[in-house]
């Protein structure tokens, strides 16, 4: 324990030291919701010097899912005979017709699962139900969906399908940089996405955009060390790719997982909240597996749904504004009554700010908002 | 969503393994890391072992998790 504290201390010292010699203020982007929360939780933001910022990018799968995809999911859950299986993260995200949680209280069969294979088991155990798996997540989670689909194929299940909203992180990073609306001086790369893809994936960002990329773990020491490394690279004007999570991440990643993903899915253009349509950033079933595609099975098309009025989640996940700059933040939009997905998700930037960086903003107002449901209950 | 936790493999059975996840016995799929065997450490994400780990890296991770638990922090 003492050693760990000493390591954290050393990492922060390095960070402060390197920051003194920065030619100009620098902002680095983390693109993993788990990093967002871990950095806040360990207090890293409060230890950072004024000229270094760590901003959140499109790294929370719930937050980047387009409003149209969410509406499609909720509509599907309400169809008779459908059992919708979802990871818990998606349950409270609000669409045009409420959330999955609300659909469930209205009678829809929505079940929270921990593992994609649970949905397959459910389909096998309940052949009269049409089981739809809400497949969201980045490369860390996608192999689990591929395995589930292959298992459903092996079992010859006809009542299992998946609504696929999986995303690929690299095309989004490129789209963000190409949009030129965001100025970052480097990336803290997602450790567990990299465990699957390999850290070599990010070499293109270093080469093409001349920005340093550092793969980071999720403990306080690892995040602090990664940030210190980024500041040092910015100070030295050096764009390089560093892997500071070698115990988990290798150069080429988990080949078996990559092969399974490739076997089942092919890259397609996908719509992201805040970023719009990004070429090759999503995944769709290869034709051999098209019978597992919930979208074609249930003849459902993505609706071009507007985002909730006033909600700036799209700007928040692309670092074009901070949660505090959103007029709804901590007033109309709170974790109890979230309006946008960044406040719903436990890994959303808005929820992390609400918990750790509210800094006195409208505390009274937010407490009012929290009190509202019970007031309604009394009425 | 990309949260993953280390666990030790207690027994293997084809594409599945029972792992010790900080005192809990959990059944996970080893399809993505077929080479793991009893006693190995793996990183578990959403019911799947996604990567094999070396044992010495893990003491530190559990020290952090224990510390959080003592302080009453959630995971």
Low-confidence stretches of chain A: 362-379
Known CATH architecture of chain B:
Roll
What does the largest sheet of chain B look like? 5 strands, antiparallel
* Approximate helicity band of chain A: 40-55%
Helix coverage percent of residues of chain B?
Answer: 10-25%
Beta strand % of chain A? 15-25%
Beta-strand residue percentage of chain B: 35-45%
Q: Which two chains form the greatest contact, residue counts included? A: A-B, 42 and 26 residues
Q: What is the residue-mean pLDDT of chain B, rounded to a whole number?
A: 84
User: Overall pLDDT of chain A, averaged?
Assistant: 91
Structure description:
The complex is a heterodimer of chains A (379) and B (75). With 379 residues, chain A is α/β, with parallel strands linked by helices. Chain A folds into two domains: 194 residues, 3-Layer(aba) Sandwich (Rossmann fold), CATH 3.40.50.11750; 143 residues, 3-Layer(aba) Sandwich (Rossmann fold). Chain A contains 18 helices and 13 strands. In chain A, helix 12 links the parallel strand 10 and strand 11. The C terminus of chain A is likely disordered. Chain B has one domain: SH3 type barrels, CATH 2.30.30. Chain B is built from one helix and five strands, in the order E-E-E-E-E-H. In chain B, a hairpin with a 2-residue loop joins strand 4 and strand 5. The longest helix of chain B has 13 residues. The radius of gyration of chain B is 12 Å and the shape is globular. Chains A and B meet through helix 2, helix 7, helix 8, helix 10 and helix 13 of A and strand 5 and helix 1 of B.
Give me some keywords for this one.
heterodimer, A: 379 residues, alpha/beta, Rossmann fold, 5-stranded parallel beta sheet, 43% helix, 17% strand, B: alpha+beta, SH3 type barrels, 1 helix, 5 strands, 43% strand
